[in-house]
Amino acid sequence: MSTATADDTRRLIAARGLRGFADGAVSVLLAGYLTDLGFSPLRVGAIITGTLLGSSLLTLAVGLLGHRSRRKRMLLAASALMAATGIGFAGLTTFWPLLAVAVAGTLNPSAGDVSVFLPVEQAALAQSERASRLTRTFARYNLSGTLMGALGALASGLPEAAARALHVDVHDAERVGFVVYVLVAVMIATIYRGLSPTVEHYGAPSSPLARSRAVVLELTALFSLDSFGGGLVVQSLLVLWLDRRFHLPIATTGAIFFVAGLLAAFSQLVSAQIAERIGRVRTMVYTHLPANVFLMIAGLAPNAPLAVAFLLLRMALSSMDVPARQSYVMAIVPPEERAAAASITNIPRSFATALAPLLAGAMLERSSFGWPLVIAGALKIVYDVLLLVRFRGVRPPGEP
Length: 400
Fold this sequence. Notes:
Radius of gyration: 20 Å
Oligomer: single chain
Number of strands: 0
Order of helices and strands: HHHHHHHHHHHHHHHHH
């Protein structure tokens, strides 16, 4: 890898980490912030749905039209939109304007990355890395985001602690989190400005998916099922469930998700080593399936310690499929179609996910029982089985 390319990889990984910190903080703050504004669980779910729906539409636009634009330019535009989103959430207090900002903006209420940045960064990473190292590179990329997301979740308790110490309104202190979100957007824009032309692909086809359409659409359908299940248990909704079910304060919940984030982050490094031995698809399924069993058990747990224990067990395994999945998609499509493939296969991680929080919010408004967790785990187990049956024989060149 050339020096310029190595620098691009470092920049993309650093940007992912900063976004992870901002997303980790606001994903924990969001439910409490909206509740303090007087919104019901159903309205909280609607705003979370709006954030994910807006991300899906932006991701779709990138997939269909982004092959005509420079990647660096798209990343800078996304950074500007991120800053505008933070300003909107910090300054608005009524439901409909906040819903509009949620739909049009980049706010991420989940523990993972479901934003317009993701497909562009994935394609840029794949462009600048050898195929044999893709899974390891994506593991480092996701480690950066997940680890910093864990730190963001831990930091989410600082506004409440500061409000109590300084005797100021908690809601005003929580608003600082969205100001930090704006500052992070400025910082990552500065990082993106230093990207070299190496991240671009100049031989873009006239059609975004000319040769790999069939396999990409099949994967997209399966990822849709997984993402719909994941949308029932995005981090903001888990915070809401833990509050309604066990009355856990934000500071405690933030510490829990900090530990969960650490487990998820470092498990992805192990994922790359497993994938090199048994292949990407088997790695995805064999780590994801037990994680979903633990999620269902957490939803059935009668007390907070058991629920938290099984959520942590789930998080120790649930992200191990991410680098394997990302590198698998990049490895089985032609280089000129990677941006479109990354974008279109990531649409489920925002669009299908976006359909679920409203349903989960309605469930939690009627009952504090963990129905969203139980249903999510069952749907994601079905996805695991279907993925293994259909794609275990579809291997990129050189894979075991």
